Amino acid sequence: MSRVAYVNGRYLPHGEAMVHIEDRGFQFADAVYEVWAVLDGRLTDAEGHLARLERSLSELRIGWPRSRAALLTVVRETVRRNRIRDGLAYLQVTRGVARRDHPFPSPAPQPTVVVTAKALDLGAMEAKADKGVTVISQPDQRWGRCDIKTVSLLPNVLAKQAAREAGAYEAWLIDQDGLVTEGASTNAWIVDANGALRTRDTGANILRGITRATLIELAREIQIRVDERPFSLEEAKTAREAFLTAASAFVTPITAIDGVLVGDGRPGPVTRRLRALYLDHARRNAW
Ligand code: PDD
Q1: Cα-to-centroid distance, 213 and ligand 1 (Å)
Q2: Among 118, 128, 131, 149, which one carries the catalytic annotation?
Q3: Distance from the CA of 99 to the center of ligand 1, in angstroms?
Q4: Range of 155's domain?
Q5: pLDDT by residue (tens digit) across 60-98?
């Protein structure tokens, strides 16, 4: 089936969907984005992603291109037109098109809106999660506003590529103090010696993952303690369990970090329970 993309008010064949060469997203990465997981044709954590989009836009002083409801309708319609059952929906909003000049253009141009959707093989994702994935560490070379979900992702791309070349799924980014910030495109977690979950606090320079936020609530509901505080790479290597979260990975167990096995090198019981819990919640609340 041919893919369809939405660009500035029109649904187009994917191969014909284009933006202008002087779009500020292309020229300056002056743009923000969101990614929703699609399960059974419906968006998961829909409101959370929309709220974060609002925050990203407002931090960069890019206006809402449409009402929230209209934007969500476009995302859902793109999923529908692509007949996605399980997959990902992607939305990008740029500051718009203007003659290339660094300051914000005045008057503000109409923001550019692009929406795409792609299918994922949920069975293959489940198989990967059953086996667990490996990560390597990389220095965190990003800017100081990783809380804004911008498309300026070159350090993330380089770290992810280093992971792939090392045969790993993800790169965990390490700050100047030897502490894990997050993954190149996922949030980072461990289960510590007390059985508590640890993940970096949102006061740090990380993306405030929507999957992360939902999982914190779900874990607390079943009396699993969650400490939002840093952990070092060394602590991660000796943790009981480690895992990552993202819309594109849900909750995925990590079995080795830099070649060092985590626990017995198999997905741990806490992580497996949390994955099941998250998927069940995501499915039941998707729309
Ligand atoms: N990435 N940290 C980073 C740097 C990310 O890029 C992402 C998401 C996350 C997890 O956030 P969430 O749970 O809201 O998906 C954490 C998306 C999936 C991407 O870039 O494709």
Answers
A1: 12
A2: 149
A3: 31
A4: 125-285
A5: 999 988 899 999 999 999 999 999 999 999 999 999 999
Tens-digit pLDDT profile for residues 28-50: 999 999 999 999 999 999 999 99
In short, whether 185's Cβ falls inside 6 Å of ligand 1 is: yes
Among 92, 120, 148, residue at a domain's last position: 120
Residue 166 exposure: Cα atoms within 13 Å on the Cβ side: 21
Domain CATH for 226:
3.20.10.10
Max distance between CA atoms of the chain, in angstroms, equals 59
120 φ, ψ (degrees, to nearest 5): -125, 150
Nearest protein Cα to ligand 1, atom 20: 185
Does one domain contain both 113 and 176?
Answer: no
Question: Is the domain of 98 the same as that of 63?
Answer: yes
Cβ of 202 closer than 6 Å to ligand 1, yes or no, is no
Q: Please name the amino acid found at residue 177.
A: D
Active site residue 149: yes
Domain-ending residue, one of 120, 147, 175: 120
Tens of pLDDT, residues 115-172: 999 999 999 999 999 999 999 999 999 999 999 999 999 999 999 999 999 999 999 9
Start-to-end CA distance of the chain, whole Å, equals 24
